[in-house]
Amino acid sequence: MKHSLIVSIALLSLFFAQPLTAQTSEQVTTVPNDLQNPLTLLFHHEASARQVVLATGEMICDNLLVMGWNVIVADRDWAKVNLKTMEANLHKSWIWDNNTFFMNQIGHPYHGSLYFTSARSNNLNWLESFAVAATGSLMWELFMEVGSPSMNDFITTTTSGAVIGEILHRLSFEAYDVLPLFSWIISPVNAITQLVTGDRARRPVGTTWRNDWFLYGGLSTTAFQFSSAENNKNEIHGPLVGFGFDVIYNNPYGHNSQELYDQFRVQLDVFTASRYRFFRLLMDGTLYALSLEHLTQQPTTVGLTFNYDIFDVENISLSAGSAGLAFRQQNTISDAALRWNLEADYIFMGVPDIYFKLNSDSQVTIPTVQPPYTYRNGPEARVGLEFTHPVAGTFALDAQTMVLWAYPDTSHDTRFDGLTLIAHAQARYEHVIWNNISLGVSDLFYFKHEWFNSPEVPDTTQITNTIRIYAKFSLRQAL
Known about the structure:
The chain is an alpha+beta fold. It is 30% helix and 40% strand. It has helices at residues 2-15, 38-43, 49-73, 83-89, 101-120, 126-143, 151-178, 180-186, 188-197, 293-296, 355-359, and strands spanning 208-226, 233-249, 263-273, 276-291, 300-313, 316-333, 336-352, 376-389, 393-406, 418-434, 437-452, 460-476. The radius of gyration is 23 Å and the shape is globular. The protein starts with a helix and ends with a strand. The relative contact order is 0.12.
């Protein structure tokens, strides 16, 4: 599922870059102005009863197909359910499971996106589709596995599935204008719905505002320090090669929502070196936005956010689902443009790694029931700054800081409860060398310090710093 998610996002970014000049009046539907009222927008309903039934049926079929694969092909004992196991699950207490980070934080979110797009492809709105995703996740936890239902899986599958599902759903329409095949790869459920009904879903309101692709080369350094001053490590990884993109859907400055979640940003970084890998996917979505341009005289937006971020690196595992409030503004002075963003969020499901387990250090013995991560929550702040001048070039900074504490009774080994501080940032400078091609240099920094409750476990600091030179290709440039 991890590879499916990466391929889907990469393909959509490449193929929705073309201008949508071939759109017809039937392809683009404008939402009436009265729907910009947030309450009206929230409960706007246009799907027929038949489409609601189809959406529910596709969600159920998705669960049955995955379960069938696990039973028939993978021969998983935990998937061999029957009426007795289903009845027993209704009476079991919900747990916080210890499955792998990949399965819980990447596999489940992608599975949740299939539930979500089952509804969106049948013209259910965002809130209705969220409810379908929650129903599909609940069905899986109660009836599709022999073990006890998992609280963390239910939360992550539903919430991050909605984030990923809406992004893939919207951008698949732009890929469809270039080549339908790629649209179907990006969002296979949309293709299934079209095959069953003979019609495509209504096209969402919006289009890509900016689409930048990067080719990287560079070096990365990592450091691990313990309060016990034992087994500290410092390593250099390189040379690195990789790629990434930065995609913004709809102009975030001065934006008025016409539909829920009709503005978002997706950033991807993938690079590798000998015995080292780095994968970062940041999805920052605006659930509802209101323009304040009439008050500030500058393109300004205030909005409710709903996000999901993933780090899956050789020495870092982190995912964070969050919601909050964002303020965005663009200022123009002569030929220069200054764009800045401030965001205050609350992370309702943060999953950071435990270094000792991931690297098999001998300092601490961890029981096998304890996963190599903990379940946490806490506040988060984000800041973004971009200054662009045709002669001076472009300087950009994006940074996030979060403070996380453990959910009560979620760790199998309470020695690893405590407090976590995480900060990561990227600074870059670039200059256009020809048309839509730029050259630049960037520094990507990740810092984590963990205070553990038990004296048996030393406090831990992890630092990763990556310096890269890159070429940027702007497939669609912001105006």
